[in-house]
């Protein structure tokens, strides 16, 4: 799935931090859990029209799944594919638990301000997303259900949710191949259901690669009739660009 | 959880029938109760809630299910906002389960879910987009269309991580009732979906009742 073996770019997001970048179509974003137990919160937007954004319900119902793994694609709310999951070492990523907020972090792990702890202060997912979104003129109204890479939340027959601790191990990799230009907003604040007793501060490495070209027999493209139709919508979109 | 209401329809301060494919928009004040009634059965009421004085605070599906530790909604469910505040509580439910993971139909998602040529068929997002554009005073737009509740829909999740759209568990006369904890703007799309076997391809009217 990668055209080049050497990353075009390699960077580390420290635990409890946030970052964002625009990734162009035809590139792979590799996420690597540096130390194990990571969680990476993510939101996706079309930089040409930020009213188009990642849609959790469409992603789940189009693929009849509650969890995300290799072979799945990430749907926008406009019937298109932002990215395909072309590699996954874990088999399950969460997109239904939302993100932490200041109250949740204080309740779970205590408050730690910048005054007290400098860059080891307790940041939360919601403020982190808003911080990055503001750089692109976006705000509260643009928040939507996010992805939580490296995290597993399972349900029982009655719908009760359970966070699976230590789901991800050091070195675990997820590759996202971008099928259209995408604004990617990320944070490494703890998963809101993380059961760790101390504020989990787990860094995530990300790398960018050039993607190999996508054939009509691509596993993500033919993973479901729904995905195939979404790729057709992408093709129409790019026809006019 | 099946929990009938003691409120009588004759005593309601407000009643309105909403045909399939239409929107419903109304402010329900803190302390008032609102009932959504499935008049003919197996209808989906795609519902969004906003803080009436600040619509950037809105119902959050993910915060609600996470904080209650369960993916389904029923009597006793507390509906939380994007800022973690209690918006409404489900006080009565004769259906037993409602979905908040499946989202709403839109022209574009109909292309992926059903067929590319379904794109011009009427959808819930159409209804909401008409609602916000016909009510400019609200200052709302597509930015405000977010993840909703599908009252009367059954979307089972499995331990293995599967998700299915099962036959409806609603029936004619079943209802869900909510008590508002803040002044909320209620925005419903009474679903016009003609491609989903859940409603036997027959979208039907609902009724909305409000008690002081």
Automatic annotation (TrEMBL), chain B:
Q: Which PANTHER family does UniProt cross-reference here?
A: RE64534P
In terms of domain of life, where is this protein from?
A: Bacteria
- Can you name the source organism? Hydrocarboniclastica marina
Q: What is this protein called?
A: Urea carboxylase-associated family protein
Ranges for the DUF1989 domain?
Answer: 16-185
């Amino acid at each position: 799935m990668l055209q080049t073996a050497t990353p075009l770019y390699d960077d580390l997001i420290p635990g409890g931090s946030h970052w964002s970048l625009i990734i162009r179509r035809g590139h792979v974003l590799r996420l690597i859990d540096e130390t194990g137990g990571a969680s990476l919160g993510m939101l996706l937007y079309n930089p040409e029209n930020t009213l188009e954004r990642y849609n959790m319900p469409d992603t789940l119902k189009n693929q009849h799944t509650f969890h995300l793994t290799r072979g799945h694609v990430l749907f926008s709310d406009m019937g298109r594919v932002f990215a395909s999951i072309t590699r996954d070492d874990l088999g399950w990523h969460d997109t239904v638990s939302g993100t932490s907020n200041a109250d949740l972090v204080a309740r779970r792990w205590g408050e730690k301000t910048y005054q007290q702890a400098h860059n080891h202060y307790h940041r939360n997912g919601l403020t982190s997303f808003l911080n990055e979104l503001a750089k692109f003129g976006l705000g509260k109204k643009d928040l939507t259900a996010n992805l939580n890479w490296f995290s597993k939340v399972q349900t029982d027959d009655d719908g009760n949710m359970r966070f699976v601790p230590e789901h991800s191990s050091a070195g675990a990799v997820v590759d996202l191949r971008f099928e259209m230009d995408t604004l990617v907003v990320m944070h490494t604040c703890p998963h809101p259901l993380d059961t760790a007793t101390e504020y989990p501060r787990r860094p995530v490495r990300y790398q960018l690669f050039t993607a190999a070209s996508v054939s009509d027999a691509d596993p993500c493209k033919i993973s479901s009739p729904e995905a195939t139709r979404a790729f057709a919508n992408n093709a129409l979109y790019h026809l006019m660009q | 959880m099946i929990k009938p209401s003691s409120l009588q329809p004759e005593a309601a301060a407000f009643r309105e029938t909403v045909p399939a494919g239409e929107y419903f928009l109304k402010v329900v004040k803190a302390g008032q109760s609102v009932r959504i009634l499935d008049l003919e059965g197996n209808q989906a009421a795609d519902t969004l809630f906003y803080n009436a004085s600040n619509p950037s605070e809105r119902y959050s599906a993910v915060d609600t299910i996470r904080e209650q530790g369960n993916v389904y909604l029923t009597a006793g469910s507390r509906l939380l906002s994007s800022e973690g505040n209690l918006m409404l509580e489900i006080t009565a439910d004769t259906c037993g389960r409602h979905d908040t993971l499946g989202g709403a139909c839109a022209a574009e998602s109909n292309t992926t879910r059903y067929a590319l040529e379904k794109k011009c068929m009427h959808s819930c997002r159409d209804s909401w987009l008409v609602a916000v554009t016909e009510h400019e005073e609200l200052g709302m737009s597509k930015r405000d269309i977010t993840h909703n509740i599908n009252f009367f829909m059954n979307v089972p999740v499995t331990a293995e991580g599967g998700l299915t759209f099962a036959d409806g568990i609603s029936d004619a006369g079943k209802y869900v009732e909510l008590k508002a904890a803040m002044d909320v703007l209620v925005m419903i799309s009474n679903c016009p979906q003609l491609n989903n076997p859940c409603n036997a391809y027959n979208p039907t009217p609902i009724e909305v009742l409000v008690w002081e």
